[in-house]
Design brief:
The protein is mostly helical. It has 3 helices and no strands. The longest helix is centred in the C-terminal third of the chain and has 22 residues.
Length: 64
C-alpha cells in the first residue's frame, strides 16, 4: 500500500481504519468516557507503526 492510499484509508467509509467512525465507536463504548480520544490516538499510532515497519522491512526483490 502506498503512503497516500494509507492516509486515505483513515477517511475511507469502507475502511476499518476510518477515524471518524472509530471516534464515534470509542465515544459510545469506552469504559472511561473522557479518555476515548486517547484510544483513538493509540489506534492511529498502532496502524502507522505497522505500516512504517512493513515499509521498512520490505526489500524491493522480496515479495510481501
Amino acid at each position: 500500500m502506498k503512503f497516500t492510499a494509507s492516509i486515505q484509508s483513515f477517511r475511507g467509509r469502507l475502511s476499518h481504519r476510518n477515524l471518524p467512525e472509530l471516534a464515534t465507536l470509542f465515544c459510545l463504548h469506552h469504559p472511561v468516557p473522557g479518555l476515548y480520544l486517547l484510544s483513538v490516538v493509540l489506534n492511529l499510532i498502532r496502524y502507522t507503526t505497522v505500516y512504517l515497519s512493513a515499509r521498512l522491512l520490505h526489500t524491493p526483490g522480496k515479495p510481501h
